[in-house]
Design brief:
Elements (H helix, E strand, L loop, with lengths): L2 E4 L1 H7 L5 H4 L5 E7 L2 E10 L4 E7 L3 E8 L5 E8 L2 H10 L13 E2 L13
Antiparallel strand pairs: 1-2, 2-3, 3-4, 4-5, 5-6, 6-7
Length: 122
């Protein structure tokens, strides 16, 4: 799935519900999500030394907000999926940073998602 960096104004013109992201004062990068001949979504992300936040919006109907932490082998510390763009974006920017009161404490390790899979012949 190709993705090109796009201007914040272009992303917000397609999905104005993402306005809470740059309004939060942090640097967000925006990317188009596309297939040959069709743009079908936008991804927004910001990176901090302790975590990366991202919001993926697919055609106004499917939204995924996620925080990934690189420590302890890396993994997902917060995730929401739904159809409420503004709600998920707002929830994500309100997630406390690691070490702050109320910060997510559980982590879904990335290596838990990677396994030694054997295809069985039947």
């Amino acid at each position: 799935m190709p993705h090109d960096t796009i201007a914040q104004a272009d992303a917000l013109s397609c999905f104005p519900e993402l306005n809470d992201l740059p309004a939060n004062g942090n640097r967000w990068g925006f990317h188009s999500l596309s297939e040959p001949g069709a743009v079908f979504g936008v991804a927004a992300s910001r990176a901090h030394p302790d975590y990366t936040d991202a919001v993926f919006v697919f055609e106004h109907r499917h939204v995924l907000g996620i925080r990934v932490a690189p420590g302890r082998g890396g993994g997902i510390v917060w995730m929401r999926h739904g159809d409420g763009i503004a709600e998920i974006a707002r929830e994500l920017v309100e997630v406390p940073a690691p070490g702050e009161p109320g910060a997510p404490g559980s982590i879904l390790p990335v290596d838990a998602l990677i396994g030694d899979y054997t295809i069985l012949d039947r």
